[in-house]
Structure formats: structure tokens, C-alpha cells
Amino acid sequence: MTSKRHLNRFLVTLLGFIAFTSTHIYAETIDGPANIRLTPNGKTIASMYDRSPIEVEGKDGDWYLVRVLFFVENNMIKSNESIIGENTEFSDTNGTKIGKTLDTIKVDYGPNGDSNRSQLTFVGYTHRQNIVPESLVEESISKIVKSGANLNVNTDVWKKHLALIDYQPWTSIDSFETFLLYENDYYDISPGPRIILFFYSDKLVGILHKSPLDLGNNTKKEVISGYTISFIPGTSKDLIKKSAKSIFPLYGALINKV
Fold first, then answer.
1. pLDDT tens digits in sequence order for the chain, 258 residues long
2. Is 21 in contact with 183 (CB distance < 8 Å)?
3. 202, 153 contact by CB (below 8 A)
């Protein structure tokens, strides 16, 4: 019981620290141009340009439910209806065009905007082939680990993954090096972590994650407060204990369970 409380205290502290310092980062990326549809293989409502950012929120077979967050000029929004018309181009926060509507779309308002433009969002479906495979973060990590690839952070496979997804270095201590990817929670201007990768002596040993990962059999894991801490299969008990002492000084659950 005590160790469970310690782990909960650790997560509260961790999430509080990250929320205070976080910024929005999209993970998934369009391999386009690509259509966004109202339903799987249904009516086309928008077209996304190549390398445009999206957020995957669900899956139906090979069709992904995605959220698009964008800006348009205020005069492009139909008054009091939260609707934008057909053939409206929209931009990212920097003003770069990322797509256009192909039909009238019902939208929701985002937390940002000014007197000239509004931040809006809508959801729709796109096929798996329209998303850069490596940008499907949880799937990409699972595939790398299960493939038996070298787990050293300096290998090309991890350099590519870290650069593409735009992780941020988090903390380094006692031969541990960590990389953090924030959630892109549309309704929260201070999102928490989506994934934290833990490397020891340059080798991946553990992952904190919110969405499921498939790292293979014999994965040691702990589920606390909606987050899972998974250790790479084959990670020694001693190294798990060392990580608990060095990286997670406030919790002892994993020390007592291994």
C-alpha cells in the first residue's frame, strides 16, 4: 500500500512539473495530399496537404479517426453557426497552409485566436496509408522494440524516431537519459506527457505511456492513474530497481514488485 502511494505521489509530481513547462506538439503527420472523410470510406469533407499535422483519436480497421487543429480568418466563419464553407484553405499556427475544406464543415473553437483569425478543430477519418507510418507513435515504438532492432539511442532507427516525432530531452541522471513527448490535448493548454522514453547507458529500458503499447511477452508493467510504466522485455530486476531509485525517487512500487 505504501509503495502504491509513493508511485501516485511520483506521478502527481511528474505531471505537475510537465504541465507547467509543456507546449503543444503534434505527433502524427499526413503523407499527402490526403482526404479526410466524414465516416470510414465515406463522404470527403477536407483535403490535407503533405506533412500536415493531425492527432489520431481512434481507429476503425485501417481507418483512423483524426482531429485537425487549424486557423482561419474570422470572416471565413459563418456567423454564430461554427461552420466554415467549401473550398476554405486553413493554416497552422505559423500561417502555413495545411489543407482546405471540400464541403461545409461543422467546427469547434480552440483556446487560441485573435481579432483577425480563430483557432478551430474538426474530426474525420483518413486511411492508414495517408499517415506517415513512423509518426504513429505507439505503433512505431512497438514495432521497433518487437523487431529486435538495436535499442541503443545512437542507432539510426532511434535517431530517426526521435527526430521525426520531435521529442524533447527531459532529464539525465546516473547514466539515465530521458526523452519526453507531450500529449496534444485540444482542450488543455498545458497537456501532460504522452510518452517518456528511458535510456540507461544509451539503451532503451523503459517507457511511460498513456495509450497501449505492444512490446511483446514478459513485459513488466505497472498501471497507475491512467499511465503505464513498461520495461523492455529482458530488462534485469537490478536495472528496474536502479531506475526506480534514480529516475523515480518518490515511488517504490516497482522495487517491491520485481
1. 444 454 454 454 454 444 444 433 456 889 989 999 999 999 999 999 999 989 888 889 999 999 999 999 988 887 667 899 999 999 998 899 999 999 999 998 877 777 789 899 999 999 999 998 888 889 889 988 888 778 899 999 888 888 878 788 888 888 899 898 887 654 455 667 888 899 999 999 989 888 888 887 767 777 766 778 889 888 888 888 887 777 665 333 332 443
2. no
3. yes
135 within 8 A of 141, measured Cβ to Cβ: no
Q: Which residue has cell 495509450?
A: 211
In this structure, the number of other CB atoms found within 10 A of the CB of residue 155 comes to: 15
Q: CA-CA distance, 101 to 48, in Å (whole number)?
A: 9
Q: What is the DSSP string of the chain?
A: -HHHHHHHHHHHHHHHHHHHH------EEB-SSEEEESSTT--EEEEEPTT-EEEEEEEETTEEEEEEEEEEEGGGEETTTTEE-TT-EEE-TTS-EEEEESS-EE-EEEEEE-SSEEEEEEEEEEEGGGB-GGGSHHHHHHHHHHTT---BTTSHHHHHHHHHHT-EEEEEETTEEEEEEE---TT-SS--EEEEEEEETTEEEEEEESS-----TT-EEEEETTEEEEEPTT--HHHHHHHHHHT-TT--HHHHH-
CB-CB neighbours of 8 under 10 Å: 15
Prediction pTM value? 0.70
Nearest to 211 by CA among 26, 19, 58, 39: 58
